[in-house]
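hi!! sorry for the late reply, been swamped w classes. u asked for the two structures so here they r. pasted raw, havent cleaned anything up. first the sequence of the first protein and right below it the tokens
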Amino acid sequence: MSPASRMTDLTGAEALWLLEGAGSGRLVYLLRGTVVVRPAVHVLEYGALVVRAPVPLTAVTQGGDVTYHCDRFHRASGTGWSVTATGPAQDLSDAHEAAHYRRTLSGWVHGPHDTLLRIHPLTLQGHRLGGAR
């Protein structure tokens, strides 16, 4: 039996630092009672996440909070990290701001869905995965 790897909590500052450097992750939201997960790209600016994702705008800006998750794992070493941010999402409706992020955040389109939004994290959780002890 192989030894278990360790998982430790990250501080808020560590979680933000890792999130800032990741660049891509997954947007998680509810649609008609079903959990939906979509690939997304992001940038962290002024404490908020600007996210580009192939999702219907109304699905992520009306009602409850959305969750953004990113992680990096190194299978060979058994190390990595995971960060989850949850909060309300807003449409990036300013045309100049949206044009800027469409140029700088390469993303995916799903049918007519190519959404830019700003998430204001109310909760932030992170874990670091270490090698076996």
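now the second protein. again sequence first, tokens right under
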Amino acid sequence: MSKIYNTPSRILYQLIVLSLDLGTSGCKGYMISSDGKIISTVKVDYETYFGPGNVVEQNPFEWVNASLKCLKILCKNRNFRRDIVGLCVDATVGTLVPVKGWGIPSIERVPMYSDMRALNEAKFVGERFGEAYLYQRTGNPLTPVPTLLKMMWFKKNMPKVYERTKKFVFHKDFVVENLVEANEPFTDYSDASATMAYDIRKKEWIWEVLEETGIESDKMVEVRESTEIAGMLKKDIAEMLEIKCVPVTVGAGDCAATLYGAGAISDSTGDIYLGTAPEVDLTLEELKLDKKFRVPVRCHVLKSQWYSSATTLSGYSIGWFLERFVKDSSLGHASNVIEILNRRCAKIPPGSGGLLYLPYIIGERCPLLDPLARAAFIGLDRNHGIEHMYRAMLEGISFALRENYEVYVKEMGLDIRYLAFCGGGAQNTLLRKMIASNLKFDGLLLENPLDCAALGNSMLLLKTLGYFKDFNQAKEVIVKSVGKESPDKELEKVYEELYNLYRASYIRLKDIFANLQLYRV
């Protein structure tokens, strides 16, 4: 049996944890050793269902089935099964699951974090409470994203579903409920604070908000720290996996877990997450809010911390571009298209041959909060090729991230001390250099940039089990850096002017984007 030592240098045996990272497209399962090595990983996808009126839904039982499939595949490795000591789960924040009983949904499909059906509900709470009150108490900008608004939508539009709902839980909570023996429903601080009905200072539900919006307080769940034990793994699942009934933690939202896995465990440290929705995220030990109410600030995994998440939608442009313009080209197979494009783009000077791109293919979140904004190539001429367009898109993503970084530094007064690159885009050396040069900041490179959420959640679990004495020790062992991405002084000069053109372009096109909404189908 594995043995625990408090000093990392004296560890003779390794413990094994199982980690489930439930994302937008599927569940990724991990077997991770207590020295931060990823022993094995597997991904099982699930479906997303789109409907009219900005509806984006998933079937919660598909999450559970995907999770169990991941665990079953991971536990086929007999060499490590006896050393498995716990299980942890992270998932998207802002996905609502109405349940009529422990682990039983009230409806077949539930609204995802990206579901925007609650436009009228957002308008109602804005008029009733005011944008400033809601943001200052809950940390949520006034958009259709918060889960309170989805609860209100169910009450108005699906009253039977609302009536049979005993509790409202969230993405990771529903999966955990199906993994542990039944007890009282719960969530963690990060999901509670994404509702727009949770006081991020007092760490309690805001009963007057619930009352005014018509949501019964007894439908809200207990809020617990991510590090707490939710329960023991169900006996039948443990027998299926041929492992012990190990403890399962409450778990964390994906962004909060990613921050810890990226080493951002203390004040004003953060990550640059490069995925479909690129963002600059920060851990905060003193609550600081955006005076213009744009940047979400939520409770973190620990009661003494918060985190801010300045998210853009700029990464959607890359998927759209590859699908529409590159898929059937002569660039090669999907696995190496990005590599080929990057090699071609590296030969093109900054500025993409006089081509600028606004990356608002599905609107924009922080800091614009403009769902009507749309993408635009500005300066396109007959001399531009596919590589110019692609480079302009990467530069547009770097400008969008810079805009959020400057909100933190210039408007919120944050002194950012540490930023690590993570997510799939962290492997793109060209994009990293653009971002570092725009931010004028050294970005840390991680050994496992794609797996930060799972590693962060594993840190929480191992700390709970007493393997680490504190999170500084956990970071020393789990978070492995392999270098840094530094700014290029020549790029800094060029991007200073291009960034100003980028910002001016949106200001001039904002009303045109809104007017074009009338012609979209």
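hope this helps!! also noticed smth abt the second:
The chain has 17 helices and 26 strands.
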